[in-house]
Amino acid sequence: MLVCVTGGTGFVGAHSVAALLRAGCQVRLLVRDEAGVGRALRPLGVDPGAVEVVVGDVTDEGAVAKAVTGAEAVLHAASVYSFDSRRADEMRRTNVRGTELVLAAALAAGAARVVHVSSVGALFPAEGPVIRTDSPVGAPREVYLATKAAAEGVARRHQAAGAPVVITYPPALLGPHDPHLGDQNSRLRNELRGLMPLWPGGGLPIGDVRDTAAMHAALVTAPADGPARHFGPQHYLTTREYVRTVREVTGRRLPAMYLPARAMLPFGLLTGAVQHVWPWHIPAEYGAVYTCAVAVPAEGAAPHGIAARPVAATMADTVRWLHRRGLLTDGQAGLLRHPAGRAGERG
């Protein structure tokens, strides 16, 4: 089976490519920078020569058409995931317009299955205490989440027309081998560097990128059964549980204060405004606070019996990888306190 993957040099995309290759698929990538293929795939044990590459952007109709031609399935994982307000225009172009072009081109080319990688955030704020796969698309007041909600609307319109579009809803993802050190791994690193002493209340869904990649491979290779929606393997954690787990994994005290998330939203808006003139990234982001304020647990298991591994194991593997990369010191990673006390990496 030939599978076209967009976003294959990103965190979710690269891990999904590795899982697809392990499942015996042929993979064709649509990438903006061919040099990024090796950087993303080699750490996962994948020879970049094992994939076909089409150079282009998801907002380029010609490149998209070339990439999906002849593909039996398409995994659309290209997305800009950031709460940095300076990237708003980029998120609108890639997350919304890119989804419109990729899904339309894949279906026009006759792909038997198109998997759109959405986000649980596309369903926030929720109407009740949980979200379900049939929950309405959210109307979030935050740029990244709003673009994912708009892309979700695109995918659902195709589903309503009977197209073979499958939607997945990954949670906030941690894990090793992150090609660009994305939002969640950066947040964990910032917590261990002492840059996040103040936390909003509320919570967020957390998962392991390797579990989400396994889900994508299973959905692409399973017999087509029409439109469907699936939550990625995940656990819902309050922010207090999140920090408590980081403490357990590293053995560090990590002092933290908590304020109601909604009370912190004005501060988040202020930092977002300052970020436009401040050259360095500010960890206190409106989008992160907003997510904690509106997030609720997801109801329903991940498909194909793929269970979410324990959050502590995911965090331990991520911390270990950050340390190996030189992004955490021995002390920050907790090695000075209990060098053998963390879980080992799993594939």
Write the layout of secondary structure elements.
Layout: E1 2-6, H1 11-22, E2 26-31, H2 35-41, E3 52-55, H3 61-68, E4 73-76, H4 88-108, E5 113-117, H5 143-160, E6 165-169, E7 172-174, H6 183-192, E8 198-200, E9 203-208, H7 209-221, E10 228-231, E11 235-238, H8 239-250, E12 257-259, H9 261-275, H10 286-294, H11 311-324, H12 330-333
Parallel strand pairs: 1-2, 1-4, 2-3, 4-5, 5-6, 6-10, 7-9, 8-12
Antiparallel strand pairs: 9-11
Helix pairs in contact: 1-7, 3-4, 4-5, 8-11, 9-10
Biggest beta sheet attributes = 7 strands, parallel
* N- to C-terminal distance: 23 Å
- Give the low-pLDDT segments: 340-347
Rg, nearest Å? 19 Å
The CATH architecture classification of the domain at 2-180 and 205-235 is 3-Layer(aba) Sandwich
Task: List key phrases describing it.
347 residues, alpha/beta, Rossmann fold, 7-stranded parallel beta sheet, 3-stranded mixed beta sheet, globular
Architecture overview:
This protein is an alpha/beta fold and 347 residues long. It has a domain at 2-180 and 205-235: Rossmann fold, CATH 3.40.50.720. The protein is built from twelve helices and twelve strands. A seven-stranded parallel β-sheet has the order 3-2-1-4-5-6-10, sandwiched between helices. A three-stranded mixed β-sheet has the order 7-9-11. A two-stranded parallel ribbon has the order 8-12. Strand 4, helix 4 (88-108) and strand 5 (113-117) form a beta-alpha-beta unit. Helix 1 packs across helix 7 (209-221) and helix 3 (61-68) crosses helix 4 (88-108). The longest helix has 21 residues, at 88-108. It starts with a strand and ends in a 14-residue tail after the last helix.
